[in-house]
Design goal:
The chain is 43% helix and 15% strand. By secondary structure, the chain is of the alpha+beta class. The mean pLDDT is 89. The protein binds zinc ion (ZN) (2 copies). One zinc ion (ZN) binds next to helix 5. The site of one zinc ion (ZN) has 6 residues, from helix 5.
């Protein structure tokens, strides 16, 4: 199996794009478990790649299918596409905005495939968005509701 970095180099080559240092830095910064907001990405690359270049690289990567945009309400976060990590889904906290990557679930994937196929649909890809409260925010809410002093 080839590494994500090697795969990234191949994807650039195949699309006739050279492996510039800005592109390598952005890809490296995206190699995390957590999806990143544009500002977080810019922050991570502070002093290495300037903002305008980051925006350009992100636009190219989106076009090449290297990264995808996760729409979270009216905002979005960026993440490497499934071909560079494993396929997974996310749960977003409506209170603090935290996005949690959920572990792979083979049964769920088979169900989704089955549902699509039995409706005459061949899936190319899919996203599943779960919204709610993360453990931390959920606990905070419970605490407020059970205020002993109220
Ligand atoms: Zn939260
Ligand atoms: Zn899935």
């Amino acid at each position: 199996m080839i590494s994500p970095v090697e795969q990234f180099a191949i994807a650039l080559k195949q699309s006739n794009n050279s492996l510039t240092s800005a592109r390598r830095e952005v890809f490296g910064a995206m190699l995390t478990e957590e999806p990143l907001g544009m500002n977080e990405l810019v922050g991570k690359l502070d002093g290495k790649v300037n903002r305008a270049s980051i925006y350009r690289v992100v636009a190219l990567f989106e076009q090449l299918g290297i990264i995808i945009r996760l729409q979270i309400g009216w905002k979005y976060k960026l993440e490497l596409s499934d071909s560079f990590s494993y396929h997974h889904h996310h749960a977003t906290c409506l209170q603090c905005g935290q996005v949690v990557a959920l572990p792979e679930n083979e049964m769920l994937e088979q169900k989704i495939q089955f549902l699509a196929l039995t409706n005459g649909f061949v899936i190319q890809d899919h996203q599943l968005e779960i919204r709610g409260l993360c453990t931390k925010c959920h606990k905070a809410k419970d605490l407020l509701q059970n205020k002993p002093w109220s």
